Amino acid sequence: MNAPTFRPAIAPPLWLLAELTYRCPLHCPFCYNPVDSANDRTELTTEQWFDVMRQARQLGAAQLGFSGGEPLLRDDLEELVGEGRRLGFYTNLITSGIGLTESRLARMKELGLDHIQLSFQDSTRELNDFLSSTKTFDLKARVARLIKQYAYPMVLNVVLHRFNLDHVERIIAMALEMGVEYLELANTQYYGWALVNRDQLMPTREQVAHAESVVNACRARIGNKMRILFVVPDYFEARPKACMNGWGGVFLGIAPDGTALPCHAARTLPGIDFPNVRDTRVKEIWYDSDAFNRYRGDAWMKDPCRTCDDKAKDFGGCRCQAYALTGDAANADPVCAKSARHGDVQAIVMHAQRTQQDAVWQPAQPIVFRKNPQK
Ligand code: FES
Question: Chain-wide mean pLDDT for the chain?
């Protein structure tokens, strides 16, 4: 029997993510930014961002994230934070910490910035600096102290993969020492540069299982002192994630050049004309554009999603992953065990398993570090 059709009313965007710039001082090989972002040199002006923020707020957006690239590379970040707060947004800075001086932090605190998420690449200086291809470990440690000093809740994000999964215990110890309140251990999801480096970054099942058991043991030991979120890599699951809480559901991302996106990776999908805030009102983008309506509801779904009881819960998984792995964004995300292409995902995991069991593991090809736009 077919699962009932759903086409819920379009709710307002709750989360506006302002990707202020693709420029970044770091070169992480797991960055989710588009791999061709080095060619992207046009960024919205301060006034254009103000306008986007005003429009999104009028539509009902409540949370405003500033990310990139590295948002601190924008000299007008403080102005944007100030305007965001004035409009009544809950504001959130997602940063590598590079460029966060005490005076900038003090100013943003004064303007009411609500929340900062700081990223580290590892608990060791060597690996942190190798992965970011910069000497930034000590600088980040200083920024972590500053964030505490300015009485922000300390939120630390570490992306996990083959190179640092075995360090999870040390990463947790580092976070405790820094006084972190919320530690996000996010296994790499394979988009952007991470997809380019998938074979090099893919962990073994044993690594993931071991890290998860370490996290559980630490949780039991430290109790509420620090909350730890451990996100299992998609490829190791049998059911897909409800990516972005559904396409055009709650998330409105604006790329540095003003392109409006229902998710970070959407630009990789061919045949969709993503609207730009330079020439289209945010309301029209959200409610009426073909791009934002393309994968709402279930009319676009094929089997097995169309007849699946979970379709209103997981929305068939991730459109960008379906496209990257099957060549058709309307297919079920092959992470799902019901997908006819699930075997491809298992083969990728098995391949990592085999290669990494070799006595001295060498990536089949060197890691490709993220290239940055010059400006
Ligand atoms: Fe685009 Fe999942 S990242 S839908």
Answer: 92
